[in-house]
Amino acid sequence: MMVSNQIAGVVTVLFAVPCTTLAFYYGKKNEYNKALWLMFISALTLRIFSGTDLFLHPWDERYHALAAKSLLSHPLVPTLYDHPALGYDIKDWTGNHIWVHKPPMTLWLMALSMMVFGINEIAVRIPSILLSSIGVFLTFHIAKHFFNEKTALLASFFYAINGFLIELAAGRHPTDHVDTVFIFFIELGIFFSVYYMHRPSFRTLAFIGISTGFAVLTKWLPGFIVLAFFFVILLSKEDWKKAALHCIVAFAVAVVVFIPWQIYIYSAFPREAVWENHFNSLHIFEPLDRHTGTVFYQVAMMPRIFGELIYLPLLMLFYAYYKKRLAPDSLAIILWFVLPYLFFSFVATKMPGYVMISAPAIFIILAWAFYDIKNSIEKFRYKKLMIGFLALLVLFPVRYSFERVKPFSNVDRNPQWAQELRKLDSKVGRSKAAVFNVEHYIEAMFYANVSAYPFIPTREQIRQAKSRGFKVFIYNDVRIPAEFRTDTTVTILN
User: Fold this and answer.
1) Residue 440 belongs to what domain range?
2) What is the distance between the alpha carbons of residues 189 and 230, in angstroms, rounded to a whole number?
3) Is residue 410 part of a domain?
4) Residue 473's beta-bridge partner residues?
């Protein structure tokens, strides 16, 4: 499997690099439709390669995959332990029964994919791979509104090759598919906001509201950044009263989209809904799950995501806007970048994925800065130095893409433990099974129709599982008590 991964990596690079090169070739000839499709194919290729790991990643993909799998049987009842063999704590999102830890949109998309393509790891990732790749088109059209096609194509390139976005879509990084879908719907809402400036209509206004509603159904209230962007961009054409009225209409549509789910979970699962609402608010005031950091954490992480030179393009944009070198509506791009970073810098729980809803805006800023310097290069005394700077502005993000995608690494993408867990159903038969001493217990419940736990049970836990109609299985371990080995109602698995 290690050799095959390297071969796949080489093929991926040999395909993606010419696609990207051709995209810029057609861009020079002003054939932007061809260029954009080639950039999309390159983005899709990188995400498919990264998304074909034949195992579920530990944080947080395995939980999202298991909860999504449960929706195949009951689309309105997300569960982690579908049939708990033991008692559980509703405050433990890694081990409870009803799972409303995340809103349902991402889980529904994953469940739909598994309904079509079967219950497997690739099907789990297909929605993220597709939506993340489509972001290339959205980034291009948004950037084109503010600047021009050349800047837009470069921005779409930065989006296509960004290693962090690829990792999210592949499930390799915490917050994975939820953040990928969240980024997509926010950018979709911003795309419709830009489209509305050219072709205003109630239908487009409704699409802005629907996109916002879907964003909220993906990851709650930060999805309303779409309406903040929409309001600011409207102010470049209308007075604040008309802008506010349009935003209120879009907000009303968004409420119609997301509020039924809120009403439903508070009615159907009141204890779990109340706790998860409280738990979500705790992220603001307490560093949960050891995700700590200073107020500068998010800004300090930027070079590792966007390249070491990222701060200069940002300063250039602020300065250009201050000097009124940019159109007034470019304030919306600044807002798109600043709001998430400002908010999540003061949120106690720190994770780099939280601010990635700003990523498309940052790619647009990077591309603008590149051409702003390139078009003024004759004014600089040290031209070679500026040419080197422009090269590094592109090469640093490319380097991080290689580091995160790891196309040439020796890794086993179908580990033995995953192969064994796929056989678990055949080992337990058709029985209602409780399987203990499973290291990858969440994955076990995805691959097999069992309730799995990572520890050796006590006599009381065995009794409890049996009382709930479960047949008990324990993976072999020297620590298993002798009395369990002689118990004919307990099966030891090897």
Assistant:
1) 416-493
2) 9
3) no
4) 435, 491
